[in-house]
Amino acid sequence: DAPINEEIADLCFGLGKACVASTTGTPDQVIENLTKAFDYYFESKSVEKAVAVSTFPVPLNLGMSDKKSLDMLENSLTIASSESIEAGRVHNRYALAVGLTTGDYESASDHLINAQSIAESLNDLELQLAVSASGAAIDWFHIRWDSAREKSFRALEFAKKITNPSAEWNATIWALNASVAAGDLSKAQDVAETAVDVAWKLRNKGEVALAHALSARVWEVVGNWNKARFHLTESLSMSPSQTQALLGATLMELQIGNVEEGMKYLSTLEAAANSTQRGPNLPWAQFGIANLLAYRMTENENHLTTGVDTATFLLEEGGSPFIEL
Predict the structure, then answer these.
(1) Sign of torsion over alpha carbons 128, 181, 138, 265
(2) 293 FRET partner, CA 20 to 30 A, in 24, 50, 127, 249?
(3) Which residues, 6 or more positions from 7, have their beta carbon under 8 angstroms from its beta carbon?
(4) Kind and range of the H or E element at 19?
(5) pLDDT digits over 111-158, tens only?
(6) pTM of this structure
(7) pLDDT(311) > 80
(8) How far apart are CA 91 and CA 264, in angstroms?
(9) φ, ψ dihedrals at 278, nearest 5°
């Protein structure tokens, strides 16, 4: 509780980043440390540092769309010059935060347009890469899968020209998701073969765990159970609460007849969802999907009841079209 100075603010920012990278941090830990750092930088008009905090890539399950996260982005726009690279980064991150958790595609698009305009005026390839990757993510969540695939592969082309591991990884995520959704399994397999290596560039076990989980999904879809199991095992060994991996493991075990093992994964997925804010986010959508598909495969009506209840509250809360789907 000592008064915040620059040294303590820097430490809080470091702790927040460490909580994200460790795979064991909680949303409260992440957001508390980041907001402490941001508040000091904001009050001292340290624009570059304030923007670094507000645009730090906090994942959905650790507070990306938390009100405090959105407030940091809004406040960043009040101290960053409107045509600066810092403003462009804030607009890009704001678009992503809004686009992945709400149905407000128009607002997300407006922020992306602002970010793209700044990127082009400054001829900043790094920001153009980030905007393309964010656009792919937003389009995927709004069930615009063809444009999501187009934007993700455009981002991957930018990634060949510059070094930006975070943006390259974002592009890889949505290239995987969009290719599977659009039925382009050949492209999906190509991206899956490199996804884990791309994620390792971030030196973040949580992102590597996600890379394995998304790769597993590709191999499940094409029916390569050995590769799928390998990636799921790797993902959960790094991050036992990785919800994409828990969903994939639940469904894979049920499909091959290991009902008891599948139910263990489903129980862990429920605990992971409960650790996040109850609302229209990906972990809760994955838990609802898992139960509805578990009902189809086991005919256990308890799963149907849970799945319908989860879907009902998700629809009442609103959210992106993907969550509603």
Answers:
(1) negative
(2) 24
(3) none
(4) helix 6-22
(5) 999 999 999 999 999 999 999 999 998 998 888 988 999 999 998 898
(6) 0.79
(7) yes
(8) 41
(9) -70, 110
